[in-house]
């Protein structure tokens, strides 16, 4: 740590899924990589995350309760089972008590939770909090954000301009800090194989539209990812499988990178306000061209990178034509290495992590001393 300050950091993850491979989604992959990198830099990192996560220590107060569904078919990526929010409130109260103790206090909190409680720790106990906004505005987080005082040592980061604007409309201002991809994990692939779609298999990601586009183009397609909505999968995806359309399941990162790198084109089909779309940057890092629906932050991720095409949302005919054209461009000489180099220049994780290290270091310097916090509470009493 010569020349750098060694930080005591608590990383707060979303609790819906454990942080481990195969990653449940892009958010989990981002936080998993953050913890791994900060520790590699010599920082003292505690993880507050779902039971079963990699990197969790022995302190059970930092083990968050994942949603427990009565039936697996009820599991959802958007809702919570009855009683879960009360469990989270109790869990966060235990974490807050720990942070309020001089013996276990940290320098800064790197917050990726989708709840409001960790945001308010900056106001209530004076610990610096950096919250990354990974989603469209969530009511609980907006309420907490608007309850901060001017002296609260807190700052917000947003994963795209689009996401920053959406939160700004709710009164929450954020600096744009986009996600990144590990160039070592996502290596250059040979291409030339089947088309590919990968990600969470949920209605808002609409893999069934990727299948329809591939069928219209007469192309073979492989789908990879965790089924986050079993009813949707059975209703919209399963009936379309076969005849060159294959579902290969949820893959660990090395196998997923190999699959994507062997594809001739990747289809990305969000039909919601996509905050970032990490799968696009991951595919491009392997050299695989990307054809995507224009939704949310899609245009920001792909802007200026060769081997990309953006079409109107839900237009499967346009997607089929765009993907076919990208495959033809590659056949005629579009270099996969050039695609990767452009993606690396824009989305390299190493560059992003060095920036976040600076952000966390600066934030740590804004801690409110305990006596000042006590004085402020006394004045407001």
From TrEMBL:
<feature type="domain" description="Glycosyltransferase subfamily 4-like N-terminal">
    <location>
        <begin position="25"/>
        <end position="184"/>
    </location>
</feature>
<keyword id="KW-0808">Transferase</keyword>
<dbReference type="InterPro" id="IPR028098">
    <property type="entry name" value="Glyco_trans_4-like_N"/>
</dbReference>
<keyword id="KW-0328">Glycosyltransferase</keyword>
<protein>
    <submittedName>
        <fullName>Glycosyltransferase involved in cell wall biosynthesis</fullName>
    </submittedName>
</protein>
<dbReference type="Pfam" id="PF13439">
    <property type="entry name" value="Glyco_transf_4"/>
</dbReference>
<dbReference type="Pfam" id="PF13692">
    <property type="entry name" value="Glyco_trans_1_4"/>
</dbReference>
